[in-house]
Amino acid sequence: MADDHPRKPEPESGVTRRDFMKISAVGVAAPVVLGPVMDAAAEEVPIQGPGKVPISLQVNGKKLSAQLEPRVTLLDALRDNFDLTGAKRVCDRGACGACTVLLDGKPVYACSILAIDAQGREIKTIEAMAEGDSLSPVMQAFVAHDAQQCGFCTPGFIVATTSFLQKHPSPIADDIRHGLSGNFCRCGTYDGIRAVALASGRGKQS
Ligand code: FES
Ligand code: FES
């Protein structure tokens, strides 16, 4: 029976259909060859959980230890096990910034990091941002500029703003909009928060 489908010419790239089949066959075979290597690598990673395991965190200059399941987030460990409730749980999915803490000096969403993975890192929370018994300059500026209403987003904003100003000591308004865009305020106090950053950073309106 005649073939109704015209045969396509072999590609001009120099790779024939036969070459392609050979390459594909190698690709399929590769996992078989690599299998023992991958198995060996997997064996080196100790399995943790699902039950509780000992976890130690360095938080605000102190070592805090607890028995936690590996699935516990850093936020839940801080709030539920170490009584550090400044970081707030709002969205619990890395969208709002209410849970912001510093990890090795960088702002992160504590709801999106496992406590077990935060071991060996320096964690700083809002509780360690005051200066002794006095508010930090950023905290004072939040009060002076009335930059909060319900206050639920405020700890996360203060952590993020403090970190932002360390990197941008004299920001303009556009820097602030961009630099603090990872934190949301459902009460809409953004004008006050931008005023805080401008005043604290000695910046000017753009
Ligand atoms: S609670 Fe973590 S980002 Fe919203
Ligand atoms: S002050 Fe209420 S969410 Fe920001």
Short summary:
With 206 residues, the chain is α+β, with helices and mostly antiparallel strands. The chain is built from 6 helices and 5 strands; from the N terminus they run H-E-E-H-E-E-E-H-H-H-H.
Index terms:
binds FE2/S2 (inorganic) cluster, 206 residues, 37% helix, 12% strand, five-stranded mixed beta sheet, alpha+beta
Small-molecule binders here are: FE2/S2 (inorganic) cluster
Total of helices:
6
* N- to C-terminal distance: 77 Å
Shape: elongated
H-E order: HEEHEEEHHHH
Estimate the strand proportion. Answer: 5-15%
Can you tell me the residue ranges where pLDDT is under 50 for at least 5 consecutive residues? 1-18, 23-34
CA radius of gyration is 26 Å
What structural class should be given to the helix and strand makeup? Answer: alpha+beta
Please give the largest β-sheet.
5 strands, mixed
* Widest sheet: strand ordering: 2-1-5-3-4
Q: What is the percent of helical residues?
A: 25-40%
Q: How many individual β-strands?
A: 5
Explain this structure:
With 206 residues, the chain is of the alpha+beta class. It has 6 helices and 5 strands. It has helices at 17-44, 74-81, 137-144, 154-167, 173-179, 190-200, and strands at residues 53-59, 62-68, 100-103, 106-109, 122-124. It has a 5-stranded mixed beta sheet with strand order 2-1-5-3-4, with helices on both faces. α3 crosses α6. Mean pLDDT is 83; it is low at 1-18 and 23-34. The protein binds FE2/S2 (inorganic) cluster (2 copies). Residues 89-92, 94-99, 109, 111 line the site of one FE2/S2 (inorganic) cluster. One FE2/S2 (inorganic) cluster binds at residues 89-92, 94-99, 109, 111.
